[in-house]
Amino acid sequence: MPKSQSSASSIENDSVAPIVTMHLWGIPTRTIPIALSRMVSQRRAIAQTHGLRFAKLLGTGSGNTFSIREADPHHWGVLAVWNSEADARVFEHGAIVAAWDKDATERAEFVMRPLSTRGSWSRREPFTPVATAPWDGPVASITRARIRLRKMNTFRRAVPPIVTAVARAPGMRLTTGIGEAPVGLQGTFSIWDSSARLNAFAYETTAHAQAIADTDRVGWYSEELFARFALLRASGTFSHNSMSDVTG
Length: 248
Fold this sequence. Notes:
The protein is an alpha+beta fold.
């Protein structure tokens, strides 16, 4: 897994705090071909949306080994970074979200504000935080890595102990694997009761602490990112978990 470092990128006090949204949908088997086509057809439409800073159409998976056989064709997502909450609300009620909602058997939406970030995604730093009041509520975490192909087998062997630790971690409310492609571009999205709970997992869990240490030694990634967010709102259901339970 990408390094979970508490040090953040430099915070610009005069910049505008971005709003980050994550939409996750569950779909029936009959609409899987439609979902696959949207991974290509919706890229331009999203990129042209007013107020957008950054966006990725995402597949999901169990994250147990980040192999293609564990991809989940029944769950898909859209991650987006917006100039303002108003821009995010326009997208929420727009044609792209409506098309996914039409086919969905379940959907969840998360509205977030960046707290810290380290690394890059597609050679960009999409989640630049700004100075804000301390946050003691639930938090979201996104990790993303571009895995070197020659290191893929070594990486996969290191993942299962971490997955087991995450499932048992106190305060973890939701976790799913995410990725722009079935192989090589891998990440996770997770929700935690608090930063303290996330810190305890990141730095005090033996398997994850070892993965952090191994990242520099083994050189799994050609690009990596770790970002933490204040979870402002969550709604809907994902994999039969109520999102109202996350922030309630």
